C-alpha cells in the first residue's frame, strides 16, 4: 500500500511533469476554480465572436469541453421588420459555406438576403469600367445580408449548443500568463467588474478594433485613420450591384431586393455630414475629366478591339443607377481606419476578427476575414483536441496565426493601396488607373484570377 505522503509526492510529480497533450487535469486545483473554469472563453459577442462560440459548440471533437461566451451588451430579442437595416455585409462563398456548416445559413434563407450575380465598377474621373461575372450569371458572387439577420441566425444555432453565454459581462481586466507561467498551470484569468473571476485554458479575443485583450497582450498594432466616414443608407429604385471610385472615396450600392439597395459611401468627414442631410437627387455629381486620358482610353480601346475583337474589348456595361429616394431614418455614418496586429496569438490567447485586423470596406472583406479566422481557429483547436493536446497549445495557435496572416495581410495591403490609388484626381494617376481598369476588364483570365484570389 502506498503511504499518504508517497501518494501526494507521486500525484504532485504527475501533475507537474505530465505533458500538456494529456489534458488539463492539473488546471483544476480547487473547487472554486472548478466552478468557474472553462476550457475556452470567447470575449465579445458580435457576429464574429458569436460565430466562434457557435462553431466550437457544434464541433463534435469539442463536445466534452466547457465553453463560455462573454458579451458586454444585454441580450437583445430580434424581430424582422419590414424596413431593411442600413448595416449589411456582402458575404462571400466561403462565408456562406461556413455559416451553412454551423446551421445558420438556413435561418438566413428563411429570413431574407439577396444574391449578387454581377458587379460593375467605374472610375469617376473617366469612362473606364470593369465588369465581374458577366459570363456566368447563374453563379452567385456574393450575398447581401443584413447584420441583424446574420446575427439572429447564428444566435438561433448557438442556443442549441451546450455553450454558456453571459450577457452584460463587463470585463475589468485580464491576467495573461507568460510562457513560463502558462507551462506551469496553463491558465488565463478574467476579472469582471462585478467581482466575478473566470479562468480558462484558452481565451479568444473577439472584442473589436479597440480590443482590450490585444492591448493586454502588448503586441504591436499597426493602425491609421483614413480620415473618412462610411455613410450608410437604404435607397430605393436601384437593382444594380454597383461601385464607383470617387476622389473622396468609393461608393457602393448593394442590392437588397429588386427595388431596394444598401448604400455604403466612404468619404471625408465634412462631406459625410453633408450627405446625411442631402436630397437624394443631389447625391451624384460630376468629377473632372482630362482630354489626354480620354484620348488614350479611346486609342487603347481601338487596339484591344483589333486584337480581341470589338465585343470582347468593349465588354457589356450598364448605365450607372439613379436614386429616387432614401428610406426615412436609414442614414448613418461611422469612422474608417486600418489596423493589423503583428501577432494574433499569445500563450493561452488568440485574436479573431476586428481585434486582429481592421480593413477599409471598399471590397466588403471585413466580416468575411473574421469568419475565415473563426473557421481556421476552430479547425486547429479540433486538431489539438484530436491529438490529445490542451486547447491552448501554442503549437496549434501558431499554425492558426501563420495561416491567417498569410491570407489576411496581402488582401489588406491591396485594399489599402486601392484606397490610396483612387483617392486622388491627379491626371497621371487617373491615366494609370484608367488603363489598368481597361486592360483588366478586357483580359478575362485575369479577372477570373482576381475573383479567385478575392474569395474569402
Structure description:
There is one protein chain. With 456 residues, the chain is α+β, with helices and mostly antiparallel strands. It has one domain (4-454): 3-Layer(bba) Sandwich (FAD/NAD(P)-binding domain). Helices cover 39% and strands 23% of the residues. The protein has helices spanning 4-17, 31-35, 47-57, 93-101, 104-110, 147-158, 179-185, 212-217, 269-275, 291-308, 310-314, 366-386, 394-421, 427-442, 444-454; strands at 37-43, 67-71, 88-91, 114-116, 119-123, 129-132, 142-146, 164-167, 171-175, 188-192, 197-205, 221-233, 242-246, 249-255, 261-268, 332-341, 345-346, 349-351, 357-358. Strands 1, 2, 8, 9, 10, 11, 17 and 18 form an 8-stranded mixed sheet that branches. It has an 8-stranded mixed sheet with strand order 6-5-13-14-15-12-16-19, with helices on both faces. The longest helix has 28 residues, at 394-421. The radius of gyration is 25 Å and the shape is globular. It starts with a helix and ends with a helix. Mean pLDDT is 82; it is low at 1-20 and 22-34.
